[in-house]
Amino acid sequence: VPSRQTADKSPAARVGFTSEDLDAVLAEYDQLLDVDRGDLETILRQAEIRSYRRRSGQMSCASIMSRDVVAIAPDAPIAQALELLRSHHIKSLPVTTEDARVVGIVTQTDLLDKPTWGPRGPRLGVGRRLQLTLNRMRAPNGSIEDIMTSPVRTVSPETPLADLVRFMAATGLHHLPVVEKDGRLAGIVSQSDLIVALLAESNRRAEAADAQPR
């Protein structure tokens, strides 16, 4: 592409990674590689993440997470989870012990797929009860621990947004508990939180660019 002979970076450099980003990732390999297509794609993806991390500054999960989190105990009845989701208009509940340590998560999908709902409320089907009994060597009691996802994927308050983008994209998860080093619940971050943060950062940078003298 011919140079425009201006101070503007090329369009690719403005929206993607730069040669410096690619050089930095290559330097991390610390060896000469006969790079095939898979290796090159991995390198380019890492360069893109490095580029986003550079452009997104110091923003981390702590910057965007919800801190006043509604959680539920593992021994709570399944129906209580549905009541909490409906009353708070949320889609997931971290499952925590009395000392706020995260042991699982329960989502709308868990409530739909794992118990059977009838006139008397939720109950575990025969297949689910048998599976849990074999896994735990004891009969289930129809509580949250019988339908929650455990172990649960988590992030820390210090996790950069660039890493969060990559993690959510790779796992397909929509909600992630944010935990301290001791495993205690610090907050929860959702895809919606992430999108809002990215849009706000994009708008902030656009406004800052517009404010610069031309």
Structure in words:
This protein has 214 residues and is α+β, with helices and mostly antiparallel strands. The chain folds into 2 domains: 9-56, no CATH class; 62-114 and 147-196, CBS-domain, CATH 3.10.580. The chain is built from 9 helices and 6 strands, in the order H-H-H-H-H-E-E-H-E-E-H-H-E-E-H. The chain has helices spanning 11-15, 19-29, 37-56, 61-64, 78-88, 108-113, 126-136, 161-171, 191-211; strands at residues 92-96, 102-107, 115-118, 121-124, 175-179, 185-190. It has a two-stranded antiparallel ribbon. Strands 3-4 form a two-stranded antiparallel sheet. Strand 3 (115-118) and strand 4 form a beta hairpin.
Overview in brief:
It contains 9 helices and 6 strands, in the order H-H-H-H-H-E-E-H-E-E-H-H-E-E-H.
* Rg calc: 23 Å
CATH superfamily of the largest domain: CBS-domain
Describe the main β-sheet briefly: 2 strands, antiparallel
Shape descriptor reads elongated
Order of helices and strands: HHHHHEEHEEHHEEH
> How far apart are the termini?
24 Å
Summed up, the helix count is 9
